[in-house]
Amino acid sequence: MKDSLQKRLVRPILRLLTQGITPEKIALSLAFGIMLGVFPVIGTTSLLCLIAALLFRLNLAALQLVNILVYPLWFALLIPFVRVGERLFRVPPLAMTGSQMLALAHADFLHSVSVLWLTTLRAAAAWMLIGPPGIIALYVILAPLIRRMARIHLLSGAHQAEDFETL
């Protein structure tokens, strides 16, 4: 588990640090990647990450990597966002599971849009309440951690290319 985490998360972050990207930009890229990666509208997260990268001059590769890695979280949070949206708009709960909604989308996308568009809009509205504060909270948590990783990395002398692969 530790080796997998080291290989999939820590090493890519350290590579970004060696390319001159600041810890703050990396933290902001990760925060946006996580929160945009759970935006509850199927098929939009990559486009949202691209837009965020362009608007805030963030690392697109880091954003997209995190977007891909949080896909299981997207699926886990789909119904909670739907339920929060239903409560916001005081509508009865949709009698579908997340798996049923995805199966409908895969079977007949246009039909699923006609059936689920209001549910999707309500879930997106719920995300709009949670997403921006989530990005800020994640940034506040991640920035000091990544700054510390950068200091440790630079102090260890492992920032030289020939030493980097031994991390």
Keywords for this entry:
167 residues; 80% helix; mainly alpha; elongated; 8 helices
Gap from first CA to last CA: 16 Å
For the largest beta-sheet, the strand count, sense and barrel status come to: none
Instruction: Please count the beta strands (DSSP E, at least 2 residues each).
Output: 0
Structural class computed from helices and strand pairing: mainly alpha
Radius of gyration: 19 Å
Output the number of helix runs: 8
Could you list the spans in which at least 5 consecutive residues all have pLDDT below 50?
159-167
Shape descriptor = elongated
User: How many separate domains?
Assistant: 1
- β-strand amount: under 5%
- Range of helix content: over 70%
Question: What is the residue-mean pLDDT, rounded to a whole number?
Answer: 84
Question: Can you walk me through this structure?
Answer:
- 80% of the residues lie in helices and 0% in strands.
- The chain has 167 residues and is mainly α.
- The protein has one domain (15-164).
- The longest helix has 48 residues, at 109-156.
Could you outline the blueprint of secondary structure elements for this entry?
Layout: H1 2-18, H2 23-37, H3 45-56, H4 60-69, H5 71-88, H6 98-107, H7 109-156, H8 161-164
Helix pairs in contact: 2-3, 2-4, 2-7, 3-4, 5-7, 6-7
